[in-house]
């Protein structure tokens, strides 16, 4: 995992009021709940007394209560009450589990994976998507490491094959570039695929002159795990690639649009966007789940082509970020 980053881990509506939810994220089994103000809390899902799952327990005021012997935990993971010892008996410091810093923003829950003792930086999201768009979201579980899921959305070569009945209609198999630009923690990918007339030599990635008015489509990936397809000023497809463990991930796809403000039409467009996105993602999933190994790395013995440049750039940048903050979170 990339240390000292905010990871998108859940959709906000998945954490209900007054009920804990247990999930595995970034290889850890954790429990989320909301306190009385609705603020999301997250601690390890293993009671420090005798190991029961806290997620089976209940939310009591701001705390979560273990279902086994009733110990109550606050959002820092500290036990505040041990019923068997009496409400007024102080609780020793070592009755605690680890906690995570979490935030709710833009309709998602984000988890700070890193040093808990530094001033946590601002959570970055795609600026244009922060307001003005209507959206609808779905999620899907994939039995691959999240790097595979990310690379699939950076792969512009697969479109006419995997999606030949949907977004890949037209058999545009010739891949120009793609052009890739790095900004801080972000990759911008400029895509231009055409049909193959048998004599055109595709432009090399270094030959791509980025001009947004010359028919390039733009994809954006922001480390550690969010992506958007800039379809137009009014339509975007967003994805969050959530690490579950070394062999599993959850993908959140959100269809954003501001085509109209009329409520019924707005919801209808959302519905169409969702259905289309589900069909397209299922086409991807069918193939990506067969890829071996389930996790990618910079040097993994593949025979790559120029069209794979966004994938190579993703791997290189990820390696650099891993080297920058190698320590494991406490
Ligand atoms: S196992 Fe949780 S209170 Fe005993
Ligand atoms: Fe695809």
Number of strands: 17
Annotated CATH homologous superfamily of the largest domain: Naphthalene 1,2-dioxygenase Alpha Subunit, Chain A, domain 1
What characterizes the major β-sheet? 7 strands, antiparallel
Q: What is the second-level CATH architecture of the largest domain?
A: Alpha-Beta Complex
The top-level CATH class of the largest domain is: Alpha Beta
Look at the structure and give the mean pLDDT: 95
Structural class based on helices, strands and sheet pairing: alpha+beta
Give the DSSP E fraction (strand runs of 2 or more residues). 25-35%
- Uncertain spans: none
Small molecules in complex? FE2/S2 (inorganic) cluster, fe (ii) ion
Strands, helices and their partners?
Blueprint: E1 5-11, E2 21-25, E3 28-34, E4 40-44, E5 58-60, E6 63-65, E7 72-73, E8 79-81, E9 101-105, E10 108-113, E11 134-142, H1 146-154, H2 159-162, E12 174-183, E13 186-194, E14 217-222, E15 226-230, E16 235-245, E17 248-257, H3 263-288, H4 309-324
Bound molecules: FE2/S2 (inorganic) cluster and fe (ii) ion.
Describe the structure in your own words.
With 330 residues, this protein is of the alpha+beta class. Helices cover 17% and strands 32% of the residues. The protein has 4 helices and 17 strands. The protein has helices spanning 146-154, 159-162, 263-288, 309-324; strands at residues 5-11, 21-25, 28-34, 40-44, 58-60, 63-65, 72-73, 79-81, 101-105, 108-113, 134-142, 174-183, 186-194, 217-222, 226-230, 235-245, 248-257. The strands form 4 sheets. A 7-stranded antiparallel beta sheet has the order 11-17-16-15-14-13-12. The protein has a 4-stranded antiparallel beta sheet with strand order 5-6-7-8, with no helix packed on it. Strands 1-10-9 form a 3-stranded antiparallel beta sheet, with no helix packed on it. The radius of gyration is 22 Å and the shape is elongated. It starts with a strand and ends in a 6-residue tail after the last helix. Residues 152, 158, 162-163, 284 line the site of fe (ii) ion.
């Amino acid at each position: 995992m990339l240390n000292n980053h905010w990871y998108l881990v859940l959709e906000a509506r998945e954490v209900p009021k007054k009920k804990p939810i247990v999930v595995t994220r970034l290889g850890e089994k954790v429990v989320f709940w909301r306190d009385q103000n609705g603020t999301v809390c997250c601690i390890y899902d293993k009671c420090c007394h005798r190991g029961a799952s806290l997620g089976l327990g209940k939310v009591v005021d701001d705390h979560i209560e273990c279902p086994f012997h009733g110990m109550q935990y606050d959002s820092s993971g500290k036990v505040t009450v041990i019923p068997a010892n009496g409400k007024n008996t102080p609780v020793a410091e070592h009755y605690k589990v680890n906690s995570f810093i979490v935030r709710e923003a833009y309709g998602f829950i984000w988890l700070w994976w890193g040093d808990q003792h530094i001033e946590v930086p601002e959570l970055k999201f795609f600026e244009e998507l922060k307001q003005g768009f209507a959206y609808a979201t779905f999620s899907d579980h994939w039995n691959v490491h999240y790097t595979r899921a990310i690379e699939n959305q950076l792969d512009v070569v697969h479109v006419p094959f995997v999606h030949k009945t949907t977004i890949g209609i037209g058999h545009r198999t010739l891949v120009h570039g793609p052009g890739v630009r790095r900004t801080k923690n972000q990759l911008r990918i400029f895509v231009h695929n055409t049909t193959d007339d048998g004599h055109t030599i595709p432009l090399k990635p270094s030959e791509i002159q980025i001009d947004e008015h010359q028919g390039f489509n733009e994809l954006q990936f922001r480390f550690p795990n969010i992506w958007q397809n800039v379809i137009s000023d009014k339509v975007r497809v967003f994805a969050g690639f959530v690490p579950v463990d070394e062999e599993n991930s959850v993908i959140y796809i959100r269809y954003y649009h501001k085509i109209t403000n009329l409520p019924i039409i707005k919801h209808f467009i959302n519905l169409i966007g969702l259905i289309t996105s589900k069909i397209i993602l299922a086409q991807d999933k069918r193939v990506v789940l067969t890829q071996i190994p389930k996790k990618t790395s910079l040097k993994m013995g593949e025979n790559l082509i120029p069209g794979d440049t966004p994938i190579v750039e993703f791997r290189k940048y990820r390696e650099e970020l891993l080297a920058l903050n190698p320590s494991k979170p406490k």
